[in-house]
Known about the structure:
Largest sheet: none
Mean pLDDT: 79
Shape: elongated
CATH architecture of the largest domain: Orthogonal Bundle
Structural class: mainly alpha
Order of helices and strands: HHHHHHH
Low-confidence stretches: none
CATH class of the largest domain: Mainly Alpha
Oligomer: single chain
Radius of gyration: 26 Å
Distance between the termini: 77 Å
Helix content: 55-70%
Amino acid sequence: MNLENRLKELREQHKYTQDDVAGFLNISRQSVSKWEQGKGYPDIDNLRRLSDLYKISLDQLITGEEKYHTPVASDSNKSDHKTVGDFLWRYWWLVFPMLGMISSWFYYH
């Protein structure tokens, strides 16, 4: 299904008028009409807002299907290997005052 048919189908499924969609996007009704006739296409910001309006992903909005649905990896799959950067990030409140004390010790000795 092409984008213009998809936009019209989604609007009708949600029982919105072209004026309703235009008001939500803060654009003219004529712009919505052009999109549905295939005489123009929404920019990326309007595509994002349309996906919010219809509560679907951008993939679903554009193609009608969820193409790249992959489960999010949980933290349990993460390695327990810690780096120095992890330590500094987690304990910055402990490390940086110590650095100040060390540098002042070198300054006075």
